[in-house]
């Protein structure tokens, strides 16, 4: 497996991988998350250097993760997600490799923290903790049990600008 930046030729495959990764029996078909990635790509929040794919030995895309611009009380931070792994490759460490690479890239860019919405049992292995522990509140109160933060090297716990209301990029408002 190799982790690399997204290329223009990967866009359609990323859409398919994302839709497949979020399709569950008895639920939506994953098109909401796939469409979100497309809308983020067209938004000012898009950071092309933080759209990463995992490829197999034949350079086929088997996973994708991205981080986009976001804010805590007006202070720039990053939001990770969606994280997608093709169903035939789930459970093989692809998501783990993508997340570690994304966190390293976010840290290298000097972000103080990253935020995501997801399963705390899964993301705690990457150092994520509930956002309320940091005084960060989600835009939707019902997200609280799944709304998480991972601090990076640029985080200063004494900085009051890193506490308060969180805001995703505008395309998340339609999810």
User: How many DSSP helices?
Assistant: 4
Number of domains: 1
Distance between the termini: 31 Å
**How many beta-strand elements?**
9
CATH class equals: Alpha Beta
Uncertain segments are none
Task: Give the oligomer, counting copies of the same chain as homo and different chains as hetero.
Answer: single chain
* Mass-distribution shape: globular
CATH-level-4 superfamily name: Gcn5-related N-acetyltransferase (GNAT)
Fraction of helical residues: 10-25%
Q: How would a crystallographer describe the biggest sheet?
A: 9 strands, mixed
CATH architecture label: 3-Layer(aba) Sandwich
Q: Which fold name corresponds to the CATH topology?
A: Aminopeptidase
Description:
The protein is an alpha+beta fold and about 180 residues long. It has one domain (about 1-170): Gcn5-related N-acetyltransferase (GNAT) (Aminopeptidase, 3-Layer(aba) Sandwich), CATH 3.40.630. It is built from 4 helices and 9 strands, in the order βααβββαβαββββ. It has helices at about 10-20, 30-40, 95-110, 120-125, and strands spanning about 1-5, 50-55, 60-70, 75-85, 115, 130, 135, 145-150, 165. Strands 1, 2, 3, 4, 5, 6, 7, 8 and 9 form a 9-stranded mixed beta sheet that branches. Helix 1 (about 10-20) runs antiparallel to helix 2 (about 30-40). The protein is globular and about 45 Å long. It starts with a strand and ends in an 8-residue tail after the last strand.
């Amino acid at each position: 497996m190799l982790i690399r930046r997204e290329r223009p030729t990967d866009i359609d495959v990323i859409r398919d991988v994302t839709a497949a990764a979020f399709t569950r029996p008895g639920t939506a078909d994953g098109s909401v998350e796939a469409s979100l990635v497309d809308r983020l790509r067209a938004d000012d929040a898009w950071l092309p250097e933080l759209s990463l794919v995992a490829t197999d030995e034949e350079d086929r895309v088997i996973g994708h993760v991205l981080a986009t611009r976001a804010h805590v009380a007006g202070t720039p931070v990053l939001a990770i997600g969606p994280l997608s792994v093709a169903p035939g490759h789930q459970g093989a460490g692809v998501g783990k490799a993508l997340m570690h690479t994304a966190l390293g890239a976010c840290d290298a860019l000097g972000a103080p923290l990253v935020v995501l919405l997801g399963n705390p049992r899964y993301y705690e292995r990457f150092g994520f903790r509930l956002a309320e522990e940091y005084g960060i509140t989600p835009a939707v109160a019902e997200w609280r049990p799944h709304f998480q933060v991972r601090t990076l090297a640029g985080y200063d716990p004494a900085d009051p600008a890193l506490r308060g209301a969180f805001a995703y990029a505008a395309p998340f408002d339609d999810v």
